[in-house]
Amino acid sequence: MSRGVSGPSARRRGSRAVNALTLALAVCAPLVPAAAASPDAARGLAIAREMKARDRGFGNFTATMTMRLIDAGGGERLRQLRTRTLEGAEGGDKLLAVFDAPADVRGTAFLSHTRRDRADDQWLYLPALKRVKRIVPANRTSPFMGSEFSYEDLASAEPEKFRHAYLDDEAVEGTPSFVVERAPLDDESAYSRERLWIDQARYVPLKIEYYDRRGAKLKTLVAREYRQYLGRYWRATEVRMDNHQSGKSTLLRWSEFRFRQPLNEQDFLPASMARAR
Amino acid sequence: MRALVPVAVLLAIALPAAAREEWRGRLAAEFWGFAHSGLDPVQHRGDASLAVQPEYLARSRDGHQSLTFAGFYRWDQRDRQRTHGDLRELLWLYAGQGYELRAGIGKVFWGVTETQHLVDVVNQIDLVENPDRKERLGQPMLGATLLTGSGNLEFYLLPYFRERTFPGAEGRLRSVPRVDTGQAARYESPRGARHLDAAARWTRTLGAWDLGLSYFRGTDREPRLAPGLDAGGQPVLVPDYRQLRQLGVETQATLERWQWKLEAVRRAERGASSHAATAGFEITLPGLLGGPSDLGLLAEYLYDSRGRAAFTPYQDDAMLGLRWTANDGPGTQLLATIVIDRRSSERAFSLEASRRLGANLAASLEARAFSARAPDEFLYSLRRDDTAQLKLTYYF
Q1: ipTM higher than threshold 0.85
Q2: A266 and B395 in contact by Cβ < 8 A?
């Protein structure tokens, strides 16, 4: 009983101490000459914003995606999805994906509304029950349909959701790139930081390394075969995610990109998931 | 079925050239085993069954209109009532700017809780399919939905009533005496099954909150069971369908790991009114067991003011459950629940597990066990019906 009483109060004392420390650091920060780090932060953020800015105005697009799940032994499983994406005006982008395969989840739909200021809103539509189920934010770290992509990997990367730092210039397969590190501001993210290699000419990510909460390298994403649409917007045709800790991989193959389709907000409502099939 | 003729005519005009058309379907084989012989000597300890569900979808070139069809037929080795067919869906949908119209036979789902869906009153329960009351019969309907920035409003006119299905004499998981659906059901309304029912629902999402308010007026989907005699003079129960006015409220709060859920209804029937509620939560703990799997813990409290008079085992009960999602390639899932009656000796245990066996094949296992000691308890007639069911589904 005494443990039960002292436990929380000790925790409360502890968190008060942490708050005091945070406050002290926040107050001191402008005085510390570590301002040397800030140009890199500013440049990192500028690159992230430029990435977003260059993609602005796409409106919407539909595409087909094939996922190949490759396990450590080389066994393969296929997933097939049709997706539609709506560019967000004030909020983040909206994504709706409908499964065509495997057959038992045919017609199952996934809807995500990216939020800049809080956890994204996500729903799953189960066609056998005609039921739309809301997904708890805690699921962000869970694998999407057994793949090496988690729910948070599918969300559009809004610059406001990360702390950025420019690190270096480096070539990826001969393409000059910026190396930018970003740390999710979301404490519940599976990642402590992500390191991106961004094509200096096209401002698209060529490679992303994901580091887990303990700082160990967890996954690497490589995006290839970028194609340009409407003379402006770049989309990768092949995206590979390797999980270094489990030895599994997922290979995404995108096709049939169609921009500026007759889609609007109404096509991205939870209530519209049933007819997305 | 005559109601379908105008729908079919409408469709023939409306969908002259479908942009997308597909036939799909599934075939499922079920094997049931029971731990004990039944209370009634005509019941069996094993059963096998085969079900087919063909589905058709057509969508117009402009994407505004669609036609969906889902047929269903089951052959059951033992139970003549379980050998049954249903038109699950034959629905025309028009999606306009800010509104949707539907006509035909369809299925609507309302609700947020796990154990039961009090507010979900549009479709009748296909009880003979599964004792969990989650399978539904197709419902003839005319519907309109308004999609607005301040929520969605749905309206339905339901011109024909579907009677609930019940297991037959040789079937298990039934009351003793059995419910006789072979003889004409009783109705409060002189129009019987042709009474025009109506339903409406307003839903809105406000940040982490989902809210819903619904109203139903028409034939209660849940019958009273009146004692009677079958053609052979044996005692049976005969369904008696009353008129119902029901106000329902549902709400869900989705926080970081928590989902808080509430469904409540206020029912008014001739000479009696009652209320019922289900409230609880589910907490999701990703990666708790190491690796990519998620663990969910569920708890719900179920209440019905009618007490023993309710045609449901949930009058003052607590449900505790555990959901495990492997997040693996085969999509392995498991849900185990126990429902404990706070006032009686009734306990109902259920386990559902499923896994994909290939691109087109899936397997599922369901096990149920019941205990009840007093003859006036709802689960008393199921006390010898502990069962396990293996189901293999092929998708084509």
Answers
A1: yes
A2: no
